[in-house]
Design a protein that fits this description.
The complex is a heterodimer of chains A (445) and B (479).
Chain A: H1 16-26, H2 54-65, E1 72-73, H3 86-92, H4 95-98, H5 110-127, E2 131-132, H6 139-153, E3 160-164, H7 169-179, E4 185-189, E5 191-192, E6 195-196, H8 198-204, E7 209-215, H9 227-236, E8 240-245, H10 247-250, E9 263-267, E10 282-286, E11 299-303, E12 309-313, H11 320-323, H12 336-373, E13 378-379, E14 390-395, H13 399-408, E15 411-412, E16 414-417, E17 420-424, H14 430-444
Parallel strand pairs in A: 1-15, 3-4, 3-7, 7-8, 8-9
Antiparallel strand pairs in A: 2-10, 5-6, 9-10, 11-12, 13-14, 14-17, 16-17
Chain B: H1 23-26, E1 29-32, E2 48-51, H2 56-68, H3 91-96, H4 113-130, E3 134-136, H5 142-159, E4 167-171, H6 176-184, E5 188-192, H7 202-208, E6 213-219, H8 231-240, E7 244-249, H9 261-264, E8 268-271, H10 273-276, E9 291-293, E10 305-308, E11 313-316, H11 332-367, E12 381-384, H12 390-398, E13 406-407, E14 416-419, H13 427-441, H14 445-450, H15 462-467, H16 473-477
Parallel strand pairs in B: 4-5, 4-6, 6-7, 7-8
Antiparallel strand pairs in B: 1-2, 3-9, 8-9, 10-11, 12-14, 13-14
Classes of the chains: A alpha/beta (445), B alpha/beta (479).
C-alpha cells in the first residue's frame, strides 16, 4: 500500500491510531507541541520538492543519468574500472552488512569485524608492513593522513614534504589542506621520463625533510624503477618514506617493505568498486612502530567469555570519540563497506587471480602501446619505461582534437599535454581494443 | 508484551576455539613470481604472494555466515544516539547501481551532463533544506565536511586579513569530531561548558569569544536533544566579534521542515546525508558530508563545483577556492542515494520524517523506567542508567534482540544511554524496545556483567585486545 504513498514519509510506519495513542502517552495534543523552537527561527516555508512514488523516483534518476553519453572509457589516472565479480555485489549487499554501523557492540558485529580483520590482513600481505587500518576515504585523504602522521612522529625540526611534480592535482591539493594546520610545507621534486629523478631528489633532501612520497606505478602509468634508492634517501635523512600504490599493482610489483616504505597509501577500491565517478577507498598501512599514531579504525583479535577468538575495534584511545582534540585523526565514518567489497574481490580472485590480473596490466598496456605506435601520427609509449595498466602516447595532431574525435566515435581518453593522450586498458575487452585501434588510426592521421 | 517473542538468538557458527574460521585458516596458497613467466624483470617484482585460494561456493558461505553474525537495521531496531540509524530504502541501491552513472571523473563535461545535472540538483535540494546559498558535495563523510567547513572559514578570515584568529570554540557536549577537526585544521580548541539546563552557557560563551575567535561549532538540537533556544543571540554574539557560526548537521533529522540552520544565523554547515537522508551506514561507512555556506563564503568552497549555464551543466573553480578535500568528487554512490531519497520524500515526507522522529523519541522515553534528566528533547534523548553501568546495560539489551543506545556519552549525564529511535520504528517496535530497557533496568549486576549470552560472541575482552594487539592473521600466526 505504501507503493502509491505520497503523503508523509513512506518509511515511517505509524497508523493514525498509533500516532494518537503515542501523543496521548506523551501527554501532548499534537506533534507540533514537541518542538521547542523559538518563533523567530521557525521555518514556515516550503522546500518546493515534490514527493514521488518509488517508480517515479527511479524514472527521475534514470532520466537524468541517461543524459550521460555511453562511452568506452580508456581512463585511469587514479580511478579504475576493473570488472567486479557478481559475488561481491550479492554478498556485500546482504542487509546485515549494508545496514549495520561502526562495531561499537562487537559481540553482535563479529561478522563485519572479521571481514575487516581479513581486509587488514590482505593489506599486510600485499605491503609487507605490519599494520593496516580498515580504511580512509580515498588515496588523496590517506596521503594527507600520512603527512600528519609524519608530522607527529618526526624527530627532526624539519617541515618539508616532498612529492613528485607529476602528482595528481586532486591529491596534491587535498594534501595541502591536510597540512594547512601544521607547519609542514609541500614541495615537489622533479621527475625524469615519468619516474623520480633520483639525482635531483638527492639534491632536494636535507635534514629539514620529514616525508618523501613516491608512487608505483606513477600517474603516467610508468613503473618506478628506483624505489629502493628513494627509500634509502628518505631513511638516511630520517624522513618517512610514503609509497602510493594499490592492491592490484602490489600483487606483482615490488613489495613496499622490501624498498624501505614506512607508510603505504593509495586507492584500494580498484578492487571492489566499479567506476564510481572517483569514489574510492583509502589504503593505509604502516610499520608497527607507528601503531599508536595510526589514524582511523583498527580491528584486533581478542577472546570472549567462552575463550573463543573474537574480534573488536581496538586501540580506540587514538580516536576522536575518546581523545577529542588530541586524536590521531578526525575520521569517524569511513569506507568500511568498500573495504568489505575490496576484501571480497581479492578473495574471489585469490593469489593466482590477483597476480594474473596484474600481469595482464603490464602485457595489455604494452600490446596496446605497440599497436598504437604503428599508427601514423602516433608514438607510444612516450616514456622509455615499463608500464602498468596505462601509458602516454604522443599524437602529432593536437591532443584535444584527437580526443574530441574519439569521443564522437564513442571513446573517452585522457588529454595530458598539447600533443599527449593517456590510454588505460583496465576493464576494456580485447575486441574493444581492436575497434579502438582502428578508430584511432583514422582520427590520428 | 515482552514475552519470548522479543528474545532472539543471533547466528553463531563455531569451530574449535573460534567462530567462523578466517579465510587464511581455510586455505593458503603461495604464488611464486618468476622471471620466466612474468612480463617484468625480477628486480621490479615481488617474490611471491600468499593468500587464500578458495572457490566461489566456499566464499559465498563464508560471507553469508559473517553477515549472519552481524546486526543491522534490517535485523531490528538500532537506536544508536547521534547516528540516525534509519531504514535504508532498497530502491536507492538500484538507482546507485545504474550503469549510466558508472562513469570516470575525468570525462568531458559535455559527455557527463547527467552526472553533473544530478550533482547540481542535489546541491540545490540541500541548499533549500539547510537554508544555505551554496553547497559542495565533495566531502566524503561528516568529519570531512567539518574539516572542509573549518578550512573554508580559515580561508575566509585569511582573505580578510584576519589570520590572527586562532581559536575555535566547541561546547563540551559536542561530538568528538568537532574537537579533532578544529585541531587538525591547526586551531586552539576552546571547550565551552554547558549551563544547568544542558545548553550553551551564554556567560561562558561571552567569556570565550574574542577577536581571536575563528568560529563556534554548534550542534542544534545538541547531543542531549535540546534545541539551543538562544540561537539568535548566540549568532549575534559570535558575529559581533567577527567569528563564524558552524552547524554540525549530525542532528538535522530533528529539524527537517521546521527550522533551517541558515535562518538561525549559521554561516556554514555540513549535512550527514547517511544519517538525515537514509543512505546505508555500511558497517562504518561510506557516508558523505556535503557542506553548505552563505554567499560570503561561497568563493572559498572546494573546487570544482557544478553550475548551470543557459544550455548545460559545467564545472567551475570558485574564485578563492581552498582546493580539493578529496581526490575526485567525493562518494558518488552515496550522493545518488541521497538525491533519490530526497526526491522520493519531498517536502511532505521530509517534514513528516522529523515529526515522527521526534514523536518516537518522546514516546519511547515516556515508556522507559530510566530517568531522562534533560528536557524537552527532540529526535533523541539521553537517559541515565543510574546505579547500573551503562556499558553493561547495553550488552544486556543485545539479549533482547535490539541494538542498544550509544553509551557513556555525553558525559553530562551519568551512565548515559543516548537513544535515537528515528522515525522508522512503529509503536509496536518502540514498545519492544521499551520492554528491553525496562527488563534490563530490573536485572542485577551479575546478569548484566555476564551479558550478552544470545549474540554470536559472548562478552569480549577489550583489555586483552589493546594490550596485545593482533591486527592481522599474520600476527595471530606469530603467537
Amino acid at each position: 500500500m505504501h507503493g502509491a504513498h505520497t503523503t508523509g514519509s513512506p518509511y515511517a510506519p505509524h497508523t493514525d491510531d498509533d500516532t494518537a495513542a503515542m501523543l496521548e502517552a506523551v501527554g501532548v495534543d499534537s506533534v507540533d507541541d514537541l518542538f521547542d523552537i523559538p518563533a523567530a527561527v521557525r521555518f514556515d516555508g516550503e522546500f518546493g520538492i515534490d514527493a514521488r512514488t518509488e517508480a517515479e523516483t527511479r524514472e527521475l534518476v534514470e532520466g537524468i543519468l541517461e543524459k550521460n553519453e555511453d562511452l568506452t572509457e580508456l581512463l585511469g589516472r587514479g580511478h579504475y574500472g576493473y570488472y567486479v565479480p557478481s559475488l561481491v555485489d550479492h554478498l556485500s549487499d546482504r542487509a546485515e552488512f549494508l545496514t549495520s554501523y561502526t562495531q561499537y557492540q562487537p559481540e553482535a558485529s563479529q561478522g563485519f569485524l572479521q571481514a575487516l580483520f581479513e581486509y587488514q590482513s590482505l593489506l599486510v600481505e600485499l605491503t609487507g608492513l605490519e599494520v593496516a587500518n580498515c580504511s580512509m576515504y580515498d588515496a588523496a585523504t590517506a596521503l594527507g593522513e600520512a603527512a600528519t602522521l609524519a608530522d607527529r612522529v618526526r624527530d627532526t625540526d624539519g617541515h618539508r614534504v616532498l612529492v613528485p611534480d607529476l602528482l595528481l592535482e586532486g591529491r596534491r591539493s587535498t594534501l595541502e589542506n591536510y597540512v594547512a594546520g601544521t607547519d609542514l610545507s609541500v614541495e615537489t621534486y622533479p621527475t625524469d621520463d615519468a619516474t623520480a629523478d633520483v639525482d635531483a631528489l638527492a639534491g632536494e633532501i636535507e635534514e629539514d625533510v620529514v616525508m618523501v612520497y613516491a608512487e608505483n606505478p606513477t600517474v603516467r602509468g610508468a613503473i618506478e624503477e628506483n624505489l629502493a634508492a628513494i627509500g634509502k634517501l628518505a631513511t638516511d635523512a630520517n624522513a618517512l618514506f610514503v609509497l602510493g600504490s594499490d592492491p592490484v599493482a602490489l600483487s606483482l610489483l615490488q613489495r613496499p617493505a622490501d624498498v624501505g616504505a614506512d607508510v603505504v597509501v593509495g586507492d584500494a577500491s580498484v578492487l571492489g568498486l566499479p567506476t564510481s565517478y572517483g569514489m574510492g577507498l583509502g589504503l593505509f598501512a604502516t610499520r608497527e612502530r607507528y601503531l599508536r599514531q595510526v589514524p582511523g579504525r583498527l580491528v584486533g583479535a581478542s577472546e570472549d567469555a567462552t575463550d573463543r577468538r573474537a574480534y573488536t575495534l581496538t586501540l580506540q584511545t587514538r580516536e576522536q570519540h575518546i581523545r577529542r582534540e588530541r586524536a590521531t585523526s578526525n575520521i569517524c565514518t569511513n569506507q568500511a563497506w568498500v573495504a568489505l567489497r575490496s576484501a571480497m574481490h581479492a578473495a574471489a580472485l585469490g593469489p593466482s587471480g590477483l597476480v594474473d590480473l596484474a600481469k595482464r596490466g603490464v602485457t595489455r598496456a604494452e600490446e596496446l602501446a605497440a599497436r598504437v605506435d604503428d599508427i601514423v601520427g602516433v608514438t607510444a609509449p612516450v616514456h622509455d619505461r615499463r608500464h602498468f595498466r596505462e601509458f602516454v602516447a604522443h599524437v602529432d595532431q593536437p591532443a584535444r582534437a584527437i580526443a574530441d574525435d574519439l569521443e564522437n566515435r564513442g571513446y573517452a581518453v585522457h588529454v595530458v599535454g598539447d600533443h599527449e593522450i593517456q590510454l588505460c586498458v583496465t576493464g576494456v575487452s580485447d575486441e574493444t581494443v581492436d575497434a579502438f585501434v582502428e578508430d584511432l588510426s583514422e582520427v590520428a592521421r | 508484551m515482552t514475552g519470548d517473542r522479543t528474545r532472539y538468538d543471533q547466528a553463531r557458527w563455531t569451530d574449535d576455539g573460534q567462530y567462523e574460521p578466517l579465510l587464511s585458516e581455510k586455505d593458503r596458497t603461495r604464488v611464486e613470481i618468476d622471471e620466466d613467466d612474468s612480463p617484468l624483470p625480477d628486480d621490479l617484482t615481488r617474490d611471491s604472494l600468499e593468500l587464500p585460494e578458495l572457490s566461489e561456493p566456499e566464499l559465498a558461505r563464508h560471507y553469508t555466515r559473517l553477515s549472519q553474525m552481524t546486526y543491522g537495521i534490517d535485523s531490528g531496531p538500532y537506536p544508536l544516539g547521534s547516528c540516525t540509524m534509519k531504514y535504508n530504502p532498497k530502491f536507492t541501491e538500484d538507482v546507485a547501481a545504474l550503469p549510466s552513472g558508472a562513469v570516470h571523473p575525468d570525462r568531458t563535461e559535455r559527455s557527463l551532463q547527467g552526472t553533473l545535472e544530478l550533482c547540481y540538483r542535489l546541491q540545490d535540494y540541500l541548499g533549500r533544506i539547510g537554508g544555505m546559498d551554496a553547497v559542495t558535495l565533495q566531502p566524503p563523510a561528516g568529519a570531512a565536511g567539518e574539516f572542509t567547513g573549518i578550512r573554508v572559514a580559515a580561508a575566509y578570515h585569511e582573505h580578510n586579513g584576519e589570520d590572527h584568529r586562532n581559536e575555535v570554540i566547541v561546547p563540551e557536549s559536542a561530538h568528538g569530531t568537532n574537537f579533532a577537526t578544529a585541531a587538525l585544521a591547526g586551531y586552539d580548541v576552546i571547550s565551552l561548558p554547558s549551563d544547568e539546563g544542558g545548553r550553551v552557557d551564554l556567560e561562558a560563551l561571552e567569556a570565550a569569544l574574542s577577536e581571536n575567535t575563528a568560529a563556534l561549532m554548534l550542534t542544534n538540537p545538541n547531543t542531549l536533544g535540546l534545541f539551543e533556544r538562544d540561537i539568535v543571540e548566540i549568532a549575534e554574539m559570535v558575529h559581533d566579534v567577527g567569528g563564524l557560526l558552524y552547524y554540525d548537521g549530525a542532528n538535522l533529522n530533528a529539524l527537517l521542515g521546521r527550522a533551517r540552520p541558515g535562518d538561525m544565523g549559521f554561516d556554514v554547515m555540513h549535512y550527514n546525508v547517511h544519517k538525515t537522508f537514509a543512505t546505508p551506514h555500511g558497517g562504518g561507512g561510506p557516508g558523505a558530508g556535503p557542506v553548505g555556506v552563505v554567499d560570503d563564503l561561497a568563493p572559498f568552497l572546494p573546487a570544482p563545483r557544478v553550475r548551470k549555464t543557459a544550455t548545460e551543466y559545467e564545472l567551475f573553480e570558485p574564485e578563492h577556492t581552498i582546493g580539493h578535500v578529496h581526490g575526485f568528487q567525493g562518494n558518488w554512490l552515496v550522493l545518488v542515494k541521497t538525491f533519490a531519497y530526497i526526491a522520493r520524500l519531498g517536502d511532505e515526507g521530509l517534514t513528516d520524517a522529523s515529526a515522527k522522529a521526534v514523536l518516537n523519541a518522546n514516546y519511547l522515553a515516556s515508556q522507559i523506567e530510566y530517568d531522562v534528566p534533560y528536557e524537552p528533547f527532540h529526535h533523541e534523548f539521553v537517559a541515565s542508567a543510574g546505579d547500573q553501568d551503562a556499558a553493561d546495560v547495553a550488552k544486556r539489551m543485545l539479549d533482547y534482540g535490539v541494538h542498544p543506545p550509544t553509551t557513556k556519552w555525553p558525559e553530562i549525564v551519568p551512565e548515559a544511554l543516548m537513544t535515537e529511535p528515528t522515525e522508522v520504528e512503529s509503536k509496536e517496535t518502540l514498545d519492544q524496545l521499551a520492554a528491553a530497557f525496562n527488563a534490563v533496568a530490573g536485572e542485577d549486576d551479575e546478569t548484566l556483567e555476564t551479558a550478552p549470552e544470545r549474540s554470536s560472541a559472548r562478552r569480549i575482552d577489550q583489555t586483552s585486545a589493546a594490550r596485545n594487539p593482533r591486527l592481522s592473521w599474520q600476527a595471530l600466526e606469530e603467537e
